[in-house]
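Quick one: structure for this chain?
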Amino acid sequence: MCHVIVTCRSMLWTLLSIVVAFTELIAFMSADWLIGKAKLLSSEDMDNRTGGSQEPYHPTLGIYGRCTRISHMQLSRRDTLCGPYAENFNEIASGFWQATAIFLAVGIMILCAVAFVSVFTMCVQSIMKKSIFNVCGLLQGIAGLFLILGLILYPAGWGCQKAISYCGPYASAYKLGDCSLGWAFYTAIGGTMLTFICAVFSAQAEIATSSDKVQEEIEEGKNLICLL
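Got it. Here's what it folds into:
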């Protein structure tokens, strides 16, 4: 018989697991990893624009995508184009960024799988006599290691030609040059830290759902158990 067990700690772990998976996914897909040096539109572009801003703009560069200003936009105020610069994996600008993409993708897939499974932990608390919380916590720890490897390798690719075109000639491995880090990089770091917090907190979710109070209510024949 399925017992639906809901506790504050198990529900919080489930919510955090979902949040961290989406956080890392959004960061990975974003083009705002690097904010390039300020650029000015050419005088020809200025003459062809009717209402655009004449202030310098900052193009952004991601692992496989970029955002840049479009020239000759006369009919639209929205003049920033974002999309992938790499049509396939081999066109990613740096071998280090290719490795980063692999490690981050593996970590994110694990986190998404855990987030999916976490929704069902209210009904299923064990798999093959193993606590589902402990198994998911272990997987989150492994995912966190993949994410760390990806984030460590990412700055090593700042010396690639693509990054130099955005950050100037002084950009090199682990040196930003004229660029600055965008919100996506910091989001990925924050998501990685939250991943390890989730891995540790999974033990508390396990303790909460297997406490003596839960067992007493199961023995009383209750199918829906809600505890603080």
